[in-house]
Amino acid sequence: MPSTTDSQPRQNLAISAYQGLKRDITRGQFRPGEKLLMSTLKERYGLGVGPLREALSQLVAERLVVAISQRGYRVAPMSLAELHDLYDARSQLEAMLLRLAIERGDDAWEANILAKAHTLSRVMEVNGPDEVLDVWDSRHKAFHTAMVAGCNSPHLLQVRDSLFDQVERYRHLWLRETVFSESALEAKRQEHAALVEVVLARDAERASAMMCEHLMTPVPIITDTMRRQGLL
Length: 232
Known about the structure:
Helix 1 (4-26) crosses helix 3 (49-61) and helix 8 (182-200) runs antiparallel to helix 9 (204-216). This protein has 2 domains: 10-75, Arc Repressor Mutant, subunit A (Orthogonal Bundle); 80-229, Up-down Bundle (Four Helix Bundle (Hemerythrin (Met), subunit A)), CATH 1.20.120.530. The chain is globular. It contains 10 helices and 3 strands; from the N terminus they run H-E-H-H-E-E-H-H-H-H-H-H-H. 75% of the residues lie in helices and 4% in strands. Strands 1-3-2 form a 3-stranded antiparallel sheet. The protein has helices spanning 4-26, 38-45, 49-61, 80-104, 107-121, 129-149, 154-178, 182-200, 204-216, 218-228, and strands at residues 35-36, 65-68, 72-75. This is GntR family transcriptional regulator.
């Protein structure tokens, strides 16, 4: 029986493989429908078959990879139908969670929203466009998570996380069109400021409607980007 010390390095390798593969699929390094050859993956990530298979199995569960019977794995396809379904589901869920957060959130919840909004509005100088994207995306996620955290439902938040994972490939197409455009970023700043104002006023009905609309704005941008990049 393997010892705990033996299993820990293997687990770490599987996590490393999962994180690397997921990032590269999300960032478009592997295109939809592309076959994921084990020989290529071993060379790219410097890992063995075991950790890579574990990572691929996890990504199959997250619907980012498709297992082909006896023939390996492919990157899951992308489609307009999935784009619309994922964004509709995400916006409806987020609106519901925000409504619950407004009903249940306390002063600490309000303070955290203000803190995350302030941090998002002041993205620091960083080295290169990819780092700008990473910093803004991380702070943007933290801001939206702070908004709904007041719902105080770990199970609902877990569903939210799962849905977020599935939408990530589509989101990244929108991010690249937004983060590098000052006018697009300014529009997002104004939307976020308006959301904060309504949420702190505890206007649940208006806030949930605004959140739903806010989360659907990327859909036409992503649709256009997918067509330009030949992803349809």
